[in-house]
Amino acid sequence: MKFNIAVIPGDGIGPEVTKQAQKALNAVADVYGYTFLYKEALMGACAIDETGNPLPEETLNTCKKSDAILFGAIGDPKYDNDPSAKVRPEQGLLKLRKELGLFCNVRPVKAYDTLIKNSPLKEEIIKGTDTVIYRELTGGIYFGIKELSEDGKIAFDGCSYSIEEIERMAHLAFKAAQNRKRKVTLVDKANVLETSRLWRKTVTELAKQYPDVELDFLFVDNAAMQLILNPNQFDVILTENLFGDIISDEASVIGGSIGLLASASVGKESALFEPIHGSFPQAKGKDIANPLASILSAAMMLEHLGLHEAAQAIDDAVQKSLELGFTTEDINSVNPFSTSKVGDFIADYIQNKEDSNLNFNNIHLGQSTII
Ligand code: IPM
Ligand code: MN
Description:
Elements: E1 2-10, H1 14-32, E2 35-40, H2 45-51, H3 57-65, E3 68-73, H4 77-80, H5 89-100, E4 104-110, H6 123-126, E5 130-136, E6 146-148, E7 155-157, H7 163-178, E8 183-188, H8 194-206, E9 214-219, H9 220-229, E10 236-239, H10 241-251, E11 262-266, E12 271-275, H11 292-304, H12 308-324, H13 339-352
Parallel strand pairs: 1-2, 1-3, 3-12, 5-10, 8-9, 8-10
Antiparallel strand pairs: 4-5, 4-11, 6-7, 11-12
């Protein structure tokens, strides 16, 4: 089976982590007999540098023609520190989401037993956490009318949602819950915002179609607190764009490292897979960034393409690397492995499992090599 994959390495550590995800994909291609045809494309600061446009037309076309998109990261400090910059790397990603209609962002959050000590949160609080955030991705304040008064003293960001936008999201969240713990928590700010009241009304109505799923509600400020007080109460969290952006970064603390959180952005015709971490410019080119979120994003991509066994093989390899401590410095400060070594390990494990010619004995010394 052949698949066309658009690869957008992007900025900062994006290229180096994406490369490891491709190693994992090549390994499953080899084991299961698939062919992945990669087409690289530019987006973000690197695209601005080369073409003046954060999302060149060619990239958009490559994405439209692909079966799935693998994306690294976006952003560069030279733009973050310049509020007057008219063209920004992030505009590339936002435009891509909008143009491809990637309205549903799925962000799983898990407390891996092997990593539980890495989280700054107490073990008894996070143990067993297995939740998934369904974040609306193409509406809300991100895409509302933006204005700055002529004298530059007043700024405005509009936020709007339609029933249709809410319903298509909610259906996906309820369907996900049906295959999980059968609970949806709608996170909103319905005590203040009109858009949130529309979310509540619409989701309450739609929930009648899913009588096997429990629905509850939390205001976003309370949800932010509950997420780190008692994350085990959550199954599927359904929320709008900005709230989802914020609470998903917060939730990454549960897993012990933001370097572990993968995500899928799904639309009617396209789907994009990316780690939720940013471009981490300080680490760029140093071969120290954690590639697991990108590798897990590749696993989500395989799942989306219906290649369940292959997705599982990547998940197992990631699990193994965590168990053995074959990980980068963010989760293994004592004997860290480099980004590329972790990628090699994952690919090798997928191909050889326990028969790996990897020297397991020296892993605790941080010296294991593939021999
Ligand atoms: C994310 C990122 C983006 C967002 C940025 C880069 C525009 O933070 O994917 O969570 O805010 O959606
Ligand atoms: Mn974010």
